[in-house]
Amino acid sequence: MSNEMVLTQSTGGIAVKIAALLGWFALALQLYLILASRWQGDKSLLGGVDIFFSYFTVLTNILVAVVLTCAATSGDSAVRRFFLKPTVQGGVAAAIVLVGLAYNLLLRNTWNPQGLQWVADELLHDVMPVLFVIYWWFCVPKGTLQWRDLWPWLLYPLAYFIYALVRGYFVGSYPYPFIEVDKLGYPQVFINALMVLVAFVVISLVLIAVDRWRGQH
C-alpha cells in the first residue's frame, strides 16, 4: 500500500470522526436548548425530553451520528455490523436528505432562530445532511443496493408519522405545522404526509440509482 493511499485513508478516518463528533454535538446542543427553555419557563424537563425525541430531524440525526460513530470506530459487534450495512446506510442517507430538503423548502421561513438555536438548526438541517451525503458517496461500498430496498426504508417515515399522530393526540402538540391535526384536520394532514412520503420515495430511488451506477464504474 502506497504512502499516498495510507495518508488518504488516514485523512478520511479523521474526517469521519470529526463528522461523528459534530453530529453528537448538534444533538446535545439542541437537547440543552430545549431543556434550558423548559427550565426557564418552570416546565417539566421530562416534557422537554419528550419534545426532543418528537422531531424526525432529531431521530434521523441520531441515526446519522450512530452510523458515523460506527464507521469511525473499530471492533466487531452486531450493532456495528448492522449500521454499516450499505442498505442501512443508504436508508439513513435518504432520510437525512429528506430532513434537509423538507426544512429548507417547507419550514425555514416559518421561524427565525437566533444565537445558539440558529447554530443547532444549521447543524441539524444543513451541515449534517451534507456531511453524511459526502460520507455516503466516498466511504460506503457501492453496487449492492436493489430497487426493492426502498420498501424497508419506507417503514421508518411511516412509523414516525404514526408515532407523531398518536403522540400529538395524547399531548395536544405536533412537532411540525404540516401535521397539526388540530388546525388542519386529518384529511389535509394525510395529504401532506403523502406528499412528504412521495418525496422520500423519489430521494430513495435517486440514491439507489446512483449506487447502482457507481457500482458499475
From TrEMBL:
Segments crossing the lipid bilayer: 12-35, 55-75, 87-106, 118-138, 150-170, 190-210
Keywords on record: Membrane, Transmembrane, Transmembrane helix
Origin superkingdom: Bacteria
Keyword Transmembrane included in the entry's annotation: yes
NCBIfam families tied to this protein: Pr6Pr (NF038065)
Protein name in the entry: Integral membrane protein
Organism listed in the record: Pseudomonas batumici
